[in-house]
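Box 3.1 A note on notation
Throughout this textbook, protein chains are presented in two layers. The first layer is the amino acid sequence; the second is a token string describing backbone geometry. Keep the layers aligned when reading.
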Amino acid sequence: MSLILQRLLHPHLAAGAARQASSTTSQPAPLHPVWVVVLISTWLATACNVPLWREVAQLPGQGSLRGWGFAVAFAIIVAAGNAALLSLLAWRWTLKPAAALMVVMAAFGAYFMLAYGIAIDASMLTNVLQTDAHETTDLLSWRMLFTVLALAAPPLLWLYRTPLQRLGALRHAAHNAALLGGAVALAVLCLLLVFQDFASTMRNHTRLRYLINPLNSVYALGHIATRPLRMNTTQLLPVGRDAQLGASYAGQAKSPLLVLVLGETGRSGNFGINGYERNTTPLLAARTDLVSARNAWSCGTSTAASVPCMFSHLGRTGYEARAANFESLIDVLHHAGLAVLWVDNQSGCKGVCDRIGETLTSAPKSPTPDPALCPGGECLDRVMLQDLDTRIAALPAEQRQRGTVVVLHQMGSHGPAYYKRSAPDNKKFGPECTSTALQECERQQVVNAYDNSVVETDFFLDSVLKWLAAQDSKAQTAMIYVADHGESLGENNLYLHGLPYSIAPDVQKHVPWITWLSPAMQARTQVATGCLQHELAERRITHDNYFHSVLGLMDVKTGAYSTGLDMFASCRQAAGAARAAG
């Protein structure tokens, strides 16, 4: 495969050798570039678009003659779109590399869409570009190798063996222009023939547009590449530079200590504390001093989308429409003079903590963890509590005296290797799916492995609360846990996450959100746990509330703060009204 790609990507290097061998070895007749484009486009539109045609086959009325006509017209439109794109690169030295690249992209895209039911857009490709080595390893499988080879090897071998007919520059340009015009005309003609059905289908089944392979990947890459044209990516606009600490800090005997646990891939419906039929959270359920918001929703369906959004003051709609990047909640806390620490057991903070730095559990300079906590180089979340006191003590003393905010970014329930996310003593449900090719397992095995990862999160959060209890003599403590996004576990043949927000199922957006306030923190903030349990049990909250709720809880005053988005504000106001009445 690598030899074939080298030949395709560097045809000029092989030209001399090919000419030399032609005198002794018979070569296929040179093929006109237009035919190469047509044949490769047809392969892409058919073999590499099985996920698309599987979805089309499930549309209402597809068994009828009209349905078949729509499917054929749709296939021709897809092929014409591929041909139009390749016609722009159908030159002597660029056609084979471009065609080879599209084939490889389409083969990988088809595999992931078939295996996990994903759709490909700019957000999904951003996730791919930010994937680390461990996450990449989890996705590798023999099924991937066989699928990619089956879809990519035949056209690549054919391209390798087929010489191109040489054309003069003007003639080549004329043929390319004719090919482009013909492809566009054919697509328009087919579109007009089935326009009513096509418009209705694209409107009511928007997921289909993200399955057109590899044009979906090409469009997404173009969207990412042109982002600097739509927003200023080189400028970071300030937020909360006016931040000051409120009256609660005056003469404080103990400083506040808030732990923000940033969960990964959490499904609210799989948490026992939220009513799940399985008791996946026995340790948390045994506590009466917790607040679990059962109607909490994420800002995105992936870490790359949700984490920057939830730490932003803009909210989901404003964040998606932003014309520039802004400082984050972490920056505002730092501007206020608080000590801030980010400990990461995931793939980084996605730019949120860049100005304060982060501690990675996988970093070479990190303390050597207990081998039992990091099997295979991937650590269980409980490793973040190792030497946490030392890390906090290393923060500036003046800031720690005011207050400290610690962010613990979990590995959580990150898939598809759910079975790796729990220790042996927390594997309560079995048998587990131990394959990263989730479709190879029975769905219940996938759910079992995922639920065991929730049991591990339950253990980790309980450990955080115990650690906070040990700080009670010197700090007023609190914890907020919220997941960045949810997960699909095989419902409707969908796995993992990252679907475009508008078409993603609720399980990818409905997230667990748990709050704990020590008695000292309740007294300090005038926010009672009993009030929160009443207010937040079923009230709809979203990641839009996160930025403002943290600032409100830590009593940070800034123009960026909005009382209306502070989920603690109503209980604080109720306590104030009660004091005034008394």
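The longest strand covers residues 255-263. The mean pLDDT is 92.
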